[in-house]
Amino acid sequence: MKKVNLILVILMGIYLINSTSFLLQAGRNNTNFLQGDEYLAFASKMPEVKGGMDEIHKKLVYPEEAASKGIQGKVFLIAFIDEDGTVSDVRILRGLGNGCDEAAIQAVKSSSFIPGEHDGKKVKVKMSLAIPFKL
User: Fold this and answer.
1) How far apart, in whole angstroms, are the C-alpha atoms of residue 123 and residue 116?
2) What is residue 12's predicted lDDT score, i.e. its pLDDT?
3) In sequence order, what DSSP letters do the residues of 73-114 get, joined into one string?
4) Spatial distance between the Cα atoms of 65 and 110, rounded to a whole number of angstroms
5) 103-130 pLDDT per residue, tens
6) Which residues contact 44 (CB under 8 A, 6 or more apart)?
7) pLDDT tens digits along 85-97
8) How far apart are CA 65 and CA 105, in angstroms?
9) How far apart are CA 118 and CA 100, in angstroms?
């Protein structure tokens, strides 16, 4: 048992060293990080919904099918925000079905965002959102 624990500790140490060195290299050479059509998962300033999350909630139409079945919960999604604050794509991570997923996508796509920034430049960012559905 002690050998197994020792091996696990060694493997975790190797993993941490490798991931830390990658982050240090990315920090030294930010141009590699920002080239191409890639969306950053983290930026020094993340995008924000103009008007706050209340703006998305105002645009959210509760699907009749979900309401009639008493469906409640949250739709978890990833929104891809471009440098100008427009939503280029939305992907569902975990949905509720019964029309809620489509309603959440529509509400997010019709919202405007203040773009994300990294090192003083506007960048493409992918961000996760939780859209609540409550009767």
Assistant:
1) 6
2) 56
3) EEEEEEEEE-TTS-EEEEEEEE---TTHHHHHHHHHHTS-EE
4) 22
5) 999 999 999 999 999 999 999 999 999 9
6) 117, 118, 119
7) 999 999 999 999 9
8) 17
9) 33
> What average pLDDT does the structure give for the chain?
84
User: Per residue in 39-80, pLDDT tens?
Assistant: 999 999 999 999 999 999 999 999 999 999 999 999 999 999
> What does the buried/exposed string (b/e) look like for 48-66 if buried means 16 or more CB atoms within 10 Å of the residue's CB?
ebeeeeebbeeebeebeeb
Stated as kind and residue range, the H or E segment containing 122 is strand 121-123
Q: Which amino acid is present at 31?
A: T
pTM: 0.72
Nearest in space to 127 (alpha carbons), one of 49, 54, 11:
49
Please state, in angstroms and rounded to a whole number, the distance separating the CA atoms of residues 84 and 117.
11
**N-terminal to C-terminal alpha carbon distance within the chain:** 52
